[in-house]
């Protein structure tokens, strides 16, 4: 197995008495696609939010690329090379596709997001570089033709792809995808799964994703971690976890 890029070691988190994560430990190897699955409320989003620095663990340790992540501020994760997309699309709907993607680069240079988008930047050369980089990512994701379209005019599936472009533009080592296929029809889901596999294979990006569609997960992920009530109930290759009695039990009787 490749060395771990990400390690969660005994991570616990609770909200006013509700335990979201309970001594959770797992590792994500460099270069893999790891899926987090489990019933509603199992703690999947909380786990991503801890890695991303949105929440701070009550206990336990998180290591990324050999470094312990502690006492972080928002934005630190992006600077370290952790990108993410959101369950509820967080794009700027009145801006164009390329403006949204360029926003994903605003932490990289000396120019703020508003400067880079609204063109009163200190550095025109930096703006040109950002634009070229954004165009490259859009081309990779098959979105070159949509660059100047306003996001609100795009289909839901295309908006999700723009969200992915925005996360990828900063060249993250680790990409966190929170239900990238939620709300999609079967065809859109398959297309998103293909794009996700291409990002992983061609760009070498390590991916952790949350997905409810077990069929998609089994076809896409190299590694599956199953959560239930904030605890890990299974961890292994898709074929190993599929028939695990603990996984079947976690899912039985749960309304999705
Ligand atoms: N900000 C918060 N404030 C209070 N409770 C929270 C918060 N975030 C999560 N929780 C609680 O923590 C537990 C785990 O929630 P989490 O959203 O991580 O689960 P999940 O597996 O991602 O669920 P879903 O599949 O429904 O998105 C739940 O009981 C949830 O209600």
Automatic annotation (TrEMBL):
Domain (ABC transporter): residue spans on this chain: 6-254
Keywords: ATP-binding, Nucleotide-binding, Transport
Pfam families listed in its UniProt record: ABC_tran (PF00005), BCA_ABC_TP_C (PF12399)
GO cellular component: plasma membrane
GO MF annotation: an example: ATP hydrolysis activity
InterPro entries reported for this sequence: AAA+_ATPase (IPR003593), ABC_AA/LPS_Transport (IPR051120), ABC_transporter-like_ATP-bd (IPR003439), BCA_ABC_TP_C (IPR032823), P-loop_NTPase (IPR027417)
Protein's name in the database: ABC transporter ATP-binding protein
């Amino acid at each position: 197995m490749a060395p771990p890029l990400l390690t969660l070691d005994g991570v616990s988190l609770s909200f006013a008495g509700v335990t979201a994560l309970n001594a959770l430990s797992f590792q994500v190897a460099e270069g893999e696609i790891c899926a987090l699955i489990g019933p509603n409320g199992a703690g999947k989003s909380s786990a991503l939010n801890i890695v991303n620095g949105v929440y701070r663990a009550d206990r336990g340790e998180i290591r990324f690329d050999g470094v312990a992540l502690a006492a972080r501020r928002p934005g630190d994760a992006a600077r370290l090379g952790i990108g993410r997309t959101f369950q509820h699309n967080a794009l700027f709907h009145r801006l164009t596709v390329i403006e949204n993607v360029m926003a994903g680069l605003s932490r990289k240079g000396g120019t703020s997001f508003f400067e880079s988008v609204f063109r009163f930047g200190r550095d025109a050369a930096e703006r040109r570089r950002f634009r070229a980089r954004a165009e490259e990512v859009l081309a990779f994701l098959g979105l070159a033709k949509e660059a100047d379209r306003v996001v609100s005019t795009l289909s839901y599936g295309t908006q999700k792809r723009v969200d992915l472009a925005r996360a990828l533009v900063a060249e993250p080592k680790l990409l966190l995808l929170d239900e990238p296929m939620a709300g999609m029809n079967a065809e859109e889901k398959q297309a998103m799964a293909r794009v996700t596999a291409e990002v992983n294979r061609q760009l070498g990006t390590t991916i952790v994703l949350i997905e409810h569609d077990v069929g998609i997960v089994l076809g896409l992920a190299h590694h599956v971690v199953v959560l239930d009530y904030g605890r890990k109930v299974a961890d292994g290759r898709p074929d190993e976890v599929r028939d695990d009695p603990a996984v079947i039990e976690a899912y039985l009787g749960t309304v999705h």
